Amino acid sequence: MEKGRVLLALTGIHPGRWRELLSGEREVVLEPDGASDPSITYAVVWKQRPNLLSSLPNLRAVFSIGAGVDHIFADPTLPDVPIVKVVADNLTQYMTEYVVWRVLDHHRQGLLYRSQQQKKIWHEPPQRPAGDISVGIMGLGTLGRAAASVLLSLGFAVNGWSRSDKPMKGVSTYAGEAGLIPFLNATDILVVLLPLTPQTQGIINYGVLKELRKRNGLGGSVLINAGRGRLQKDADILRALEDGTLKEASLDVFEVEPLPKTSRLWSHPKVFVTPHAAATSDPVHLVPIMLRQMAALERGEKLENVVDRKAGY
Ligand code: GLV
């Protein structure tokens, strides 16, 4: 197979470094050029323009620059070629850091101490062992499992929920619709790392938050979402915080991004906001993986980390 050209189609992300690194091995065409170009065999994308990929007659594979691929499926004429998601140690490490940082901050009362410091209050609330807190991770893929194993090593009790059962040593796992309520009932800190699909959209709603365990040393349940904003209902989270269903939340993702200035989440005293920054896609780490995969395909080898189109992730 000959060495195909790459179309780089990124929305809202500067293509400079991606282009430079891909150009080390391949000819790169930058969107909006390249539509219908028969010499293009790969596309590297983030929120590509609809109908762009279907115009490429010789497309062999599409590479997402992010771990999530929902942005690719938003295209109504997506051609039937393999879609490859990013799986990289560096991205997994970033996500693990974010999850562990937020879990520890809620566990060690970061919010309370920050407000006490502002008021110069010298007061030590009771401490409780990590083992008394159970962290429930929704989504037990590469990212969820990596975070789970570090949380286990810190002594937390860890639960996991996924679409189909994914056993993991030391983790109490639950699966599917039938497992959801038992999972929530056993969870104090809910960590959301699910892919966004038609099945998971809006899954983090008031009814679900209501099921979280509240009788714990934390003084309430906590939500951490580092998956996708449209998994959650922002208004339901506000309602849950206001009536005490939730004690605190750390949100990296939102229904609308950037989070509108008018959103009450920005200034809510119980919410910690980051701008979809939990795990940044770093081209220095990710481009070599993509280039390796393109070369492997041309040698007749199989692509890795191909998305299951029916499942949508
Ligand atoms: C970021 O949101 C990603 O999908 O990697």
Automatic annotation (TrEMBL):
Query: Known CDD domains for this protein?
Result: GDH_like_2 (cd12164)
Q: Which SUPFAM superfamilies match?
A: Formate/glycerate dehydrogenase catalytic domain-like (SSF52283), NAD(P)-binding Rossmann-fold domains (SSF51735)
Checking Pfam families in the record gives: 2-Hacid_dh_C (PF02826)
The chain positions of domain D-isomer specific 2-hydroxyacid dehydrogenase NAD-binding read 102-278
Give an example GO molecular function: hydroxypyruvate reductase [NAD(P)H] activity
**EC code(s) of this entry:** 1.1.1.79, 1.1.1.81
Which keywords are on file for this protein? Answer: NAD, Oxidoreductase
Enzyme class per UniProt? oxidoreductase
Origin superkingdom? Bacteria
Q: What is this protein called?
A: Glyoxylate/hydroxypyruvate reductase A
User: Which organism is this entry from?
Assistant: Mesorhizobium escarrei
Upper classification of the organism: Bacteria, Pseudomonadati, Pseudomonadota, Alphaproteobacteria, Hyphomicrobiales
Gene designation per UniProt: ghrA
